[in-house]
Amino acid sequence: NAGVTQTPKFRILKIGQSMTLQCTQDMNHNYMYWYRQDPGMGLKLIYYSVGAGITDKGEVPNGYNVSRSTTEDFPLRLELAAPSQTSVYFCASSYIVTPLARSSTDTQYFGPGTRLTVL
Amino acid sequence: GQQLNQSPQSMFIQEGEDVSMNCTSSSIFNTWLWYKQDPGEGPVLLIALYKAGELTSNGRLTAQFGITRKDSFLNISASIPSDVGIYFCAGRRDYGQNFVFGPGTRLSVLP
Asked: Which of A20, A26, A45 is nearest to A35 (CA)?
């Protein structure tokens, strides 16, 4: 298994440009997540999905959009890039059988990240 | 939103020394996770804790779920150069809720 893969690894955007960060997982996980990591800060949740066709906002969703048409893919879209979106973006996935109960498998597996700079 | 604090922010230790770091929250959590992030990589799960007082080991790493349920601790024994990286804690208040991540502890190991 490749696990969670992300493309591209690096990208430089100009203010106002748009782009899509790709994320794919081959572990048949139902949950997928997008985080951003700013220097010296913890991961902040942007959006997440509990399954194909279902997405929900996280802590910092403004300026981003997501879709989940398949179990494997969870792309993150930036429509009008702003300097404040300069960050490292991580995609993650997990398999949660019973969301309201303890599960030893509900931990998250992360991709290698996409480093985005907006100038 | 909820915040986790990690201490220390960074530390420099000699190879072979033991390391201790902690994570605190103002809220009670029912799950604690510890991740390690190598440079240029995504975080990798080290240890998961699900019960107050729980002590769990993974090789030279040992983590504990604090009795108050507002903190967690990670210890690394006999550090080696490959222990270098950023260690993140993550916690959640209840099942079905998303995890909150701490800012990380950056560990440097001097030969």
From this structure: A45
User: Is B85 strand, coil or helix?
Assistant: strand
Query: What's the sign of the alpha-carbon dihedral B32, A40, A37, A78?
Result: positive
Chain A residues 9-28 with CB within 8 Å of chain B: none
Q: Are the Cβ atoms of A45 and B98 closer than 8 angstroms?
A: yes
Residue of B30, B48, B101 lying closest to A42 (CB–CB) = B101
Q: Which residues of chain A have pLDDT under 70?
A: 98-106
Q: Is A84 helix (H, G, I), strand (E, B) or coil?
A: helix
Q: How many angstroms away from the CA of B87 is the closest CA of chain A?
A: 10
Instruction: Give which of A108, A107, A105 is closest to A90, Cα–Cα.
Output: A108
Write out pLDDT tens, residues B48-70.
999 999 999 999 999 999 999 99
Q: Provide the 3-class DSSP secondary structure of residue A35.
A: strand
Give the helix/strand (H/E) hosting A76: strand A76-78
